[in-house]
Prior knowledge:
Order of helices and strands of chain B: HHHHEHHEHEHEHHHEEHEHEHHHHH
Largest sheet of chain A: 4 strands, mixed
Strand content of chain B: 5-15%
Radius of gyration of chain A: 18 Å
Number of strands of chain A: 4
Number of strands of chain B: 8
Order of helices and strands of chain A: HHHHEHHEEEH
Oligomer: heterotrimer
Largest sheet of chain B: 4 strands, parallel
CATH superfamily of the largest domain in chain A: Glutaredoxin
CATH superfamily of the largest domain in chain B: NADH-ubiquinone oxidoreductase 51kDa subunit
Shape of chain B: globular
Shape of chain A: elongated
Radius of gyration of chain B: 22 Å
Helix content of chain A: 40-55%
CATH architecture of the largest domain in chain B: 3-Layer(aba) Sandwich
Strand order of the largest sheet of chain A: 2-1-3-4
Amino acid sequence: MFSAEFKQELDKITNKYEQKRAALLPLLHHVQEKEGLITPQTEADLAEYLGVPVVHIHEVVSFYHLFHQKKMGKYHFSICQTTACALCGAEGVIEHIEQRLKIRPGETTPDGKFSLSVVECLGACEIAPVMQGNKDYVGCLNKKKVDEIIDKNS
Amino acid sequence: MEKIVTRHFGQPNSHRLENYLKDNGYEAARKALTQMTPAAVIDEVKKSNLRGLGGAGFPTGTKWSFIPQANPKPKYLVINGDEGEPGTFKDKYILEQDPHALLEGIIITCYAIGSHKAYVYIRGEYLKSLQILQAAVDEAYKANYLGRGIMGTGFDIDVVVHPGAGAYICGEETALLESLEGKKGFPRLKPPFPAVVGLFGCPTVINNVETISCIAPIINKGADWYAKLGCEKNGGNRLFCISGHVVKPGIYELPNGITLREIIYDHAGGIPNGRKLKAVIPGGISAPILTPDQIDVKMDFDSLKAIGSMAGSGGIIVMDDTTDMVWAAMVAARFFAHESCGQCSPCREGSGWVYRNVKRIYQGQAKPHDLNNLPGIVNNIGGNTICAFGDAVSMSVGSYVTKFRSEFEAKIKGEYAESKH
Amino acid sequence: MPNLSIDGKQIEVPAGTTIIQAADKLGISIPRYCYHPALPVSGNCRICMVEVEKQPKLQIACYTPVADGMVVKTNSPKVLEVRKTVLEFLLVNHPVDCPVCDQAGECKLQDYYMEHGQYDSRLSDVKVKKEKKAFSIGPTVMLDQERCILCTRCVRFADNITKTSEFGVFSRGDHSQLDIYPGKQLDNAYSGNVVDICPVGALTDKDFRFKCRVWYLSQTKSVCPGCSMGCNITVEWDKMRPHVHKNARVMRLKPRLNQDVNQYWICDKGRYNYRFIDENRIQHPQFKDNLITWDEAVGVIARAIKPLQDSNQTNRIGVIASAQLTNEDLFAVRKFFKETLKGAQVDFRMPENPGDSDNFLIKADKNPNTAGALNILQADAQVEQIVQKAVKGEIDVLYVFGHDLVKIFSKETVAQIAKKVKLFVYQGSNINETCGYAHLNLPSSVYAEKEGTFTNCQQKVQRIWPAFLPLAEAKSDWQIISLLSAELGAPLAYHHAQEIFKDIAANLAPFSEMTYEKIADKGMVLKA
């Protein structure tokens, strides 16, 4: 169950919507921002808060790629692999990260510093190959840029 | 050429209210609210030949007129900022560099359709856009361009900025509504259409970011002006996106009716490294691919439809002659397999199957019957699904097989023959 | 009302009717997976697509409302082709588990493939693997995610019928998985119904798992005797292979559609309560420790009753009848014990604590025929008084129908009764503790072995049919009473339950004008 203060925080978001359930996505973002992931406890609390069966909360969490049920590494590479980025060398970038960090897409390094995800179009094809590194879009990726980022965050 | 949507781009602090106000900011809204009836606004937008710039190209004014005014339920405006169509990145620029243009368009649109509440649904990855738009909304509320009795008129309007969470299918308007209501992005069965039963069961208009950003200029300068800028039945300019193998990838505001050749060579600098054009996607990944002999097509909705493709979202992706077209087909098939929502059986099972099939062909592990069966399998998805995603899989992936058949044949193991099995 | 034609046949239906509903009314069964008449429409399987004249694309029949003048074709070449298409897609990732899947023989993938598929496979790829196979999701149901075709019937059932929302479809695309919420169980009171509605072998019944191939099963219509709801059921049984089933005949019960009573559903208690039909039965008449013949048994009772008849002391006969008996049984009780043995103390109302109930199908009254007993026996005595008298020695013949008196009144009381009463008769189908105290035990048939009627809590008279002959020497309760009455010179002269029902209809106003033919398999409500 959410604490009264946290409920007030969430109410600020929920009150913008005519139906409470519509606040689910922004609420999930809000919690994930704080805790880094969505836990079963959060799902249960949201189910209670919104009056929605918990199974349908979990459906939403599992459907949308931006919600994580496991904590990501401190630096999370989300590399785009769709057409424009693929044409401009995304595969090489992904391979390079795999080689340097010794992880495959979907995995996190044992020291928790890096995660790698491969995603579809991020809407920044003009700076392909592009990735979302944590929150920021980083474009025109190449091995050098990747090395710099990895070195900076090691 | 007169810039419309990009007129403030590049100006310092272009996203701030004070910059927007320097250039007749919110005057179109004031004009609409105080000098025009809602019906007159709809008429004006109809006359302008503005068509939806998210991908479907539906005449905007006509869409607005479907809202049943006699229906006592509240009306909603939903702005589609999900921008997930590969090759497309224009709405991001509007959101980051001229959010008030969108907000002014929202005010006019809400007035026209009788709505007092607008939701702007922005894909969850666009954190910067979400932030900047929210700041603009806050500015607008503070200065009474949004809220109760705006600008001294009696008109109330609220705008909520709403994030998506990483699902391409939420760009489909009824899937967007489902997502906005806090559910998985499963497209709805139609009819009823959103104009009658939309958000929360109420009449709803859903329009793309760029489309609504054109509304204020249309009201300011008139429908005739806008219609003349484009071509017949497709008024105005459009923000084309171009990426892939070009010298100057980016957004280009150009009139509807410009040819693809002009965009690629005159504006985007042509193909780099002295290479030649091999193939080009004209309107986002869902659009059937074009070959070099087709690039003199005019880039408006009707002309592209006539040659068997689509203007779609205006996302142009250029492929030079180093491109393996089987690989490109695989990349497209993989995209669709990853983004299928999974609701209906032909798309859910078909998109994955087609991807695995094309992948095997690409990896040289397929037999002749795999390639012979592929077009039939691909075609079975489209026309049998709940939404147009299924049609997109068929049209898009199918176009690679049709137009570059010989490359597929070359990858087949063993003797290639026209055998049924 | 819109008038349309489907495959050349005309039909007029209320506005709002969908094509699939109109077709069902015409007896044209359009294939369907996700559509279920009791659940909200989902429209995701796409196999019900039909051709509608003037529409360029095929339309799903489950969602498209009929229109006046509409012309629908459910078997045109386009439609037949699209059915193959949908089947092909569904079978791409479906594991061909038929040899080990309980659904075989009643599986809609098999059935529609044989009817509409029959294409050559074009599949050269590996099938998508899912997480849970042969996975228990609760006390009654097994889940196999790979077999699931994601029709979402179970999700809609749990959301809309039981409102318990156990099921969801997680992830997306062809990695979508049907599952229950991690850590939860499917343990609501109606969980077994999801097995009925699952068109494939994704949700299967643990109780029935690997028990019997469905093509060995015979079906007989009946009514569940578990409570006064009287949910309509089908008894499914196999008599041909007692060596496989250890002499059990009934393999499972299934709910039978009755819109006015239980719709498509049955509670778990009712569904799984069939073992008593074959297990722990009283098989032969038994006097104290000796098995005896029916003739001998009837003689024992007659010899105890006759003196009481002759000396006008029939009030020393106590009869504890039962609301578990059919109307026919009860009428025989009435005719013999209340009329022939006028003065005998007859009642059926047990001092039981009301059982659990809900606002759906489960009723607190755990008897199938209380309304029948009330109308037919019009009891004036009271069970508690009869028992007290028996304990005090004021009853010479105590005749108990099916009640376990030990459970309700205690061992001591029953032991006392056994001492005080001259003849303590227990007539029932299954062995219980009371049998050990009764002097004479008589084997009666269970509901599945009987022809007859029950009257449910809606005052609705419903028929039951016998699936097979009674076990060993068991007889219907009315048949036993007939033997007894004949022995005492006042034969009831009934040969079939239907004859008794005719008498009921002729003599009791609430049942007037009812016949078995009119009752059919939907039931008839008593007259007020």
